[in-house]
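Anyone up for a design puzzle?
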């Protein structure tokens, strides 16, 4: 079964993170990604741009109507998401708990209930 694991952040959190700690944090994240890509359980890992780069897209008169962000009414916003393919919910939980910052920041885990083929 597939799962989406999400981590959240905010600008204050990124600003408070010491610049000298970023290389180690990135190395830990890359090691996590390699480990689970090699096991076949991590399909993809995606870091999102800052909330200010988000856009809302609607359809008006058959054409896209785009409004620049941010739109969030909350401090936290999605920072990264991971697509997992695991044999069980418990295994997805184990992988989520193994994320480098799971000891300080929770990981939100969502089962994927429907999947459409991308090659249709």
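Challenge accepted. My sequence:
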């Amino acid at each position: 079964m597939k799962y989406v694991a999400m981590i959240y952040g905010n600008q204050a959190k990124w600003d408070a993170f010491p610049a000298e700690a970023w290389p180690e944090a990135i190395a830990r994240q890359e090691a996590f990604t390699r480990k689970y890509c090699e096991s076949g359980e991590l399909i993809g890992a995606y870091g999102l741009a800052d909330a200010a780069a988000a856009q809302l897209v609607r359809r008006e008169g058959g054409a896209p109507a785009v409004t620049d962000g941010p739109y969030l009414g909350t401090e936290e916003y999605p920072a990264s998401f991971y697509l997992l393919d695991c044999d069980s919910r418990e295994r997805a939980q184990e992988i989520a708990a193994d994320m480098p910052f799971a000891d300080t920041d929770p990981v939100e885990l969502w089962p994927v209930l429907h999947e459409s083929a991308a090659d249709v």
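A detail worth pointing out: The chain has a mean pLDDT of 89.
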